[in-house]
Each structure stands twice: as C-alpha cells, then as structure tokens.
User: Which sequence fits this backbone?
C-alpha cells in the first residue's frame, strides 16, 4: 500500500536543496545494496521470473486504488517485492522494485519518482540480503517437507518482512524530516503503527506466493492464484474510497453552512481541526484517534446553524439569555450529527468542547478526566485559534502571547497535558495568526466571541447561567454515551512510497 503523506499548509517547509541531498543519499543506499547483492548472490536466478514479477509490480503500482481513505492508495507491490526476494534474489528484487516505480503514466515530480525508485529498489535488495542472511532456502530441491518449508522459507520471510517494513518507515521518515521538519521518531512511530498490520498480511501472502511458485512448481501462474483475489479486494477498497470522499463532502457542506452565517470566522473550523490533529499526534495516539478528534474539531461549531445570526454578529453586549442561547450550540451540534454513523467517534468532542478542567464549564459541568479526551483536545485548539485571530475588539495575539495565556489556564480551563502537547506541536509546526481585514471585522460585530477565555470565565462565575444551560434539552447529551465505542466500518491506512 502507498500514500500521499498528509501535508499541512501551515507547516514549515525546508529548502528544496535539503530534499535533493536526502534523495541523493537514498539513491546511494539503493546502489550500495545492489552492489552488496551482486557480491552475495550474483545476478538474478531467473530473468524470466524477474520479468514476470516486474510486470506484476508495474501493474500493481500503476493500478493502485486512488484515495482509499485520507491520501491512502492501495497497491500490492510490497507483496511482490517480498516474493521477489526469494524467487529472484537480492539483485532481482531490486530490479523489480526499481522498474515498478520508474514506469509511470501519471505526471509526478522527478524528485518524487527518483525517491520512490530508490526506496523500493532498496527494499527489494535488503529483503533478498536479509532472507539469505538468516538462512532462507532458495532451491526447490531442498524444500522436501512442510516443516522444511516453514523453517527454511516461512520464518526467514517473517524477518525479511520486518526488515522491509523498517526500511520503508526510516527512509520515509527521513525525507519527511528534511522536507517538512517532522521529527523522525514521531513519523517512524506513525508509519509503523499504520503499516504494521498490513505488513503481517504481506508476509502471509508473500509466503503463499513463494510456496506456489517454487515447491509447488506452479511458476508464474501462482501470480494469478495469489494476486487475482487481491485485485478484487482492491476494487472493494476503491468503493470505500468513494464512500470516504462522500463523507468529506458532507463535512465540507456542514462547515460551509456555518461559515456562511459567520463569514468573519471563515477557516476557523479547518484550523481547529488541523491543530487538534497535531495535538493528538504529539500525544502519540493512533490514526483512528487522530481522525476522530480532527473531525470533532472540524464540526465543533456546527450547532451554530441553530443560533440566530443576529447573536453571532451582535453589535451590543450579550444578555444572559443570549449567552444561554449561544451556549446551546454544543448540544445542538450533537443533535444534528448523532445519527450519522461515521461521525460516532467525534460526538463527544462536539458535545463537551466547552467543559472546563475545573468543572465549571458546560453543558454538563464535567471536570478533569471526566471530560472526554477528544473534547479536552478540541477545547485547547478552539481557544488557541481564537486567541491568534483578530477580533473587532482586539488584534490577534502572537503565537508566544497566546501560548502564555494557555499555560496560565492549564489546570483550570484546560487539561495541562494537552496544553503541554500544544507547546510541543507548535515547536514542530508553523502557526500563523489569522489577521482579518477591516471589512471582515466590521461584519463581525463587537460582542465578545463565545470562544474567548473571558466568556468562559464569565460562565464559570455564574452558576445560575450554567444551571440554565444544563437545564436545556439534553437529547444530544444522552446520545453521547451510547455513541461511544461504535467504530467506522473500515479503517485503512498504510504508508509506502511517496507521491
């Protein structure tokens, strides 16, 4: 499987020169591994086998399903490389990996293509070298029993599989470090956590491929027996990709509707979603958690669709009734999305993103770790973006100034662990304050925004208002607990190669 690795518009970019140097390093590694393979086992054992496997690799790479999930594409090249390590040897596997990714029909940057060729060629060579190094068998005549096949092929293939997975993760993490500044450790963890299970499957299928090709003497026809069902699976994942894009369109439509009512807050939902994802990533959680929290950040204010526009653009001080009406947007948002299955993991974040760590927030007055994790994350991202966005009554705070405010409120309004993660995330990614034009500020009104810390403090000091908010219709809140634990139907994310 392969993917366009997620990129971020506000992330600091390194110079192209550094990327070119790293790709040159990757090419050097690939050449060195090919030379090592030549010294170890010489030329490929069968050029016919290499030709067949290269054709399969090219077909797999060119026909990989596009956009299966978030920037995820599905191919079976790693399975073919694993089999090639045994059938073709180190040099043969390197040829298969190189040819598969150098033949392209889609126009991609030359530097990306060169990196992919070096990456997959290296994976092929290393796979062949590791397989031989741990005593893997390569002659059909020596595979005389099931035990011999398991010990002489199966176990070495497991080690080979792990080696290819690690090399893939390290080389990709390195290029992402040079190109975007992402810490290598974080990227390696993320790549391994998302591709580890996939590589287990690769190992099993690769073993079956080799057994059919050599001991069973099926030869090239084993590719039909092994890969044909996988291409059927590919078709199914492409259908999932269509469903995923439909989900994204639904989210965009909801966000657009909110921003139509609040044009001065255009981009707020997207920024909160992005910062929420960075926070969860900084805390070392997995892809599913990142996606759920990101979606909660995207839709945290969707309940504003039920708030009168005159209150969102008020040109007067808000009354108590106004504050209660606006505060109901959290549960109003839950009522809007609670029956959408693919949003089930994000409902908590939407419902409780205005709770406070000290228990003086709304709508349920939860405290500490009673507050759902996703809500604690979205709360920090929401307020931080608000502080770094200019308002009619104040300019945007700098990143340093806003971070100082967040640190001062750690333990009262915010979870200290999440605030600490915010500091780490801002050290890894570039965040630019959002400066509004005079026209945008004029349309915004002068009432203090509900995301401002001062508004949170006002409600924290007014138990009478909090009781009114808690006494509002709780249909949405009741559904949150029931929604916990429900999972999306499919969760696929495996990273290989760069596009």
Assistant:
């Amino acid at each position: 499987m392969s993917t366009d690795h997620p990129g971020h518009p506000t992330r600091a970019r390194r110079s192209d020169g550094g990327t070119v140097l790293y790709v040159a390093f990757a090419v050097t590694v690939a050449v060195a591994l090919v030379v090592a393979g030549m010294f170890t086992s010489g030329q490929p054992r069968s050029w016919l086998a290499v030709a067949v496997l290269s054709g399969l690799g090219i077909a797999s790479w060119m026909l990989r399903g596009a956009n299966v999930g978030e920037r995820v594409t599905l191919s079976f090249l790693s399975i073919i490389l694993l089999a090639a390590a045994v059938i073709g040897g180190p040099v043969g596997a390197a040829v298969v990996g190189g040819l598969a990714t150098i033949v392209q029909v889609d126009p991609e940057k030359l530097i990306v293509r060169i990196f992919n060729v070096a990456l997959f060629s290296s994976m092929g060579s290393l796979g062949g070298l590791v397989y031989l190094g741990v005593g893997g068998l390569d002659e059909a005549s020596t595979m005389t029993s099931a035990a011999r096949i398991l010990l002489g092929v199966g176990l070495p293939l497991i080690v080979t599989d792990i080696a290819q997975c690690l090399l893939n993760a390290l080389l990709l993490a390195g290029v992402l470090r040079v190109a975007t500044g992402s810490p290598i450790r974080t990227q390696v963890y993320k790549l391994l956590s998302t591709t580890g299970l996939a590589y287990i499957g690769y190992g099993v299928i690769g073993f079956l491929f080799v057994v059919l090709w050599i001991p069973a003497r099926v030869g090239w026809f084993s590719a039909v027996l092994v890969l044909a069902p996988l291409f059927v699976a590919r078709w199914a994942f492409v259908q999932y990709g269509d469903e995923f894009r439909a989900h994204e369109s639904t989210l965009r439509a909801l966000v657009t509707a909110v921003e139509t009512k609040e044009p001065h807050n255009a981009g707020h939902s997207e920024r909160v979603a992005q910062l929420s994802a960075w926070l969860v990533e900084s805390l070392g959680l997995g892809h599913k958690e990142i996606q759920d929290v990101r979606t909660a950040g995207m839709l945290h204010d969707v309940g504003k669709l039920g708030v009168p526009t005159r209150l969102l653009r008020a040109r007067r001080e808000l009354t108590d009734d106004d504050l209660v009406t606006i505060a109901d947007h959290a549960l109003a948002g839950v009522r809007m999305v609670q029956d959408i299955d693919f949003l089930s993991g994000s409902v908590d974040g939407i419902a409780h993103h205005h709770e406070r760590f000290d228990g003086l927030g709304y709508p349920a007055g939860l405290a500490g770790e009673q507050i759902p994790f996703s809500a604690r994350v979205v709360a920090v991202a929401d307020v931080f973006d608000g502080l770094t966005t200019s308002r009619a009554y104040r300019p945007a705070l700098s990143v340093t100034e806003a971070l100082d405010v967040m640190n001062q409120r750690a333990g009262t309004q915010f979870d200290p662990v999440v605030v600490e993660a915010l500091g780490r995330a801002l050290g890894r990614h570039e965040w630019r304050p959002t400066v509004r034009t005079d026209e945008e500020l004029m349309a915004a009104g002068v009432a203090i925004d509900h995301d401002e810390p001062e508004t949170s403090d006002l409600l924290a000091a007014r138990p009478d208002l909090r009781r009114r908010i808690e006494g509002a219709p709780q249909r949405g809140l009741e559904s949150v607990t029931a929604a916990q634990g429900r999972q999306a139907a499919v969760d696929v994310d495996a990273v290989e190669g760069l596009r």
Notes: Confidence is low (pLDDT under 50) at residues 1-15, 66-74, 474-499. The longest helix spans residues 222-261. The two ends are 12 Å apart (CA to CA). The first strand starts at residue 2 and ends at 3.
